[in-house]
Amino acid sequence: MNSYDVAIIGSGPGGYVAAIRCAQLGLKTALIEKYSTLGGTCLNVGCIPSKALLDSSHHYEDAVKHFEEHGIDIPGDIKVNLKQMIARKQSVVDTTTGGIDFLMKKNKIDVYQGLGSFKDATHILIKGEEETEIEAKNTIIATGSKPSNLPFITIDKERIITSTEALKLKEIPKHLIVIGGGVIGLELGQVYKRLGADVSVIEYMDRIIPTMDSGLSKELNKVLKKQKFKINASHKVKSVERVGDEVIVKADNKKGEEVEFKGDYCLVSVGRRPYTDGLNAEAAGVTLNDRGQIDVNENLQTSAKNIYAIGDVIKGAMLAHKAEEEGVFVAETLAGQKPHIDYNLIPGVVYTWPEVASVGKTEEQLKEAGVAYKTGQFPMRALGRSRASMDLDGFVKVLADKTTDEVLGVHMVGARAADLIAEAVVAMEYRASAEDISRMSHAHPTFAEAIKEAALAATGDRALHV
Ligand code: FAD
Ligand code: NAD
């Protein structure tokens, strides 16, 4: 039987990054994955394929709506070749997951394909084509998550679908009904909206992206409405039924009146649930909480002291970069180091266009905590860069402590916000004040100038270009 210092169950961004860091630190490492490709949800059916389709559909929309204004005439009709679009997405996925195979070999990590299942706290059965057993002094559980559902909905994977099926549809829906106005619903909703579908979003809460700063929800709502999304907030879905090729969704609106939606596809995107099926966690003495997450302490250690858990299967934001930080954290802890994660500084991004990005505290959180703060906001449309590219929607908002001027949160909607948020993360990591940001030179013309201008606004109405 092969013995390891560390076995990692699950090869998503949490698991494979943990494996690389363990190997870098000299630990003999095994990685177990039940699917034939590495990379987990993120690389196979999550972050990467969704961004590939967002980019392709964005190009199409630009060609149809904006090329003419830029002075680019295309003779004949511009058409979507969905089969090719999905094939390109798949080749991006294949190249990316293939890259993980390379990294495992390079770092001399033993990869086992099969379902990992605890026999006890130091032995794992791997049920693949053959059954193998390995011994591990320490194990990291990185088994991730699966789509959640509502109890009365049957996902048939044809017309009533999750994100996994939405990434490989064979036709463009005529009317896509999206249940859940969160990240997946809006990103994939926008893909099909751009390709020509009508999209109706049904959200239970009173606003889309309800966990982000309410200013971002409001701005994104405004922009999506301009893009002809039909957004139905404060709607409680009560039934989803397939009749032939039609899907009928019934919901109660704020007034308690029944509203009916008829479409040809329904995407259920109401969150994801931690995944521990087949893991046999109890045999290792690993306990779950009442939400099905693996219980961990501040060192990400489970109720079994040689077993750790990271990523979507534990509490916290279900984000690839959060899982990666936790993978590094556990590897370094096992090697005797004293790592640290500041969860307040894990950014959140929605890859719609305009993009939405956020780090630190929202206004709602600051109000609830009774923190005295000041706000500086700057509209993207006031930037020369925005006019040059015709990306006028959105703003940057900087929230700073009223007394000390320390930046407490940065929230933005706009072109390239997903990349711009890194500046805010760096600033907050070094506990910058709004004044610090406002005195840094920002290249002109860039979208990043909006961050400087918002910081100037936060320090006392000093924005230069409004
Ligand atoms: P996962 O990536 O879920 O990986 C877990 C792996 O464990 C899987 O491969 C699974 O097969 C394997 N496994 C489970 N049980 C066993 C077992 N018993 N034995 C062996 N293997 C097992 N996040 C972002 O930060 N940015 C984005 O842009 C983004 N886009 C997304 C888009 C979509 C459509 C979806 C669905 C998710 C997206 N996410 C995004 C979320 C992101 O994918 C997850 O947060 C991330 O994948 C979590 O990583 P993980 O390592 O915890 O688990
Ligand atoms: P989410 O939590 O972002 O959104 C789910 C939405 O569904 C919420 O707005 C919620 O209020 C709503 N909802 C819940 N129950 C409902 C009901 N009964 N009727 C109507 N609406 C209901 O979850 P998601 O969009 O499914 O994504 C799952 C996870 O994947 C998220 O945690 C997210 O962080 C991650 N993800 C991240 C990215 C990214 O980083 N860009 C992209 C996709 C997914």
From TrEMBL:
One of its GO terms (cellular component) is cytoplasm. Disulfide bonds join C42-C47. The keyword Iron does not apply. One of its GO terms (molecular function) is flavin adenine dinucleotide binding. The active site is at H444. Its cofactor is FAD. NAD(+) binds at G180, G181, G182, V183, I184, G185, L186, E187, E203, G271. Binds 1 FAD per subunit. This is Dihydrolipoyl dehydrogenase. Its EC number is 1.8.1.4. It catalyses: N(6)-[(R)-dihydrolipoyl]-L-lysyl-[protein] + NAD(+) = N(6)-[(R)-lipoyl]-L-lysyl-[protein] + NADH + H(+). One of its GO terms (biological process) is 2-oxoglutarate metabolic process. Coiled coil: none annotated.
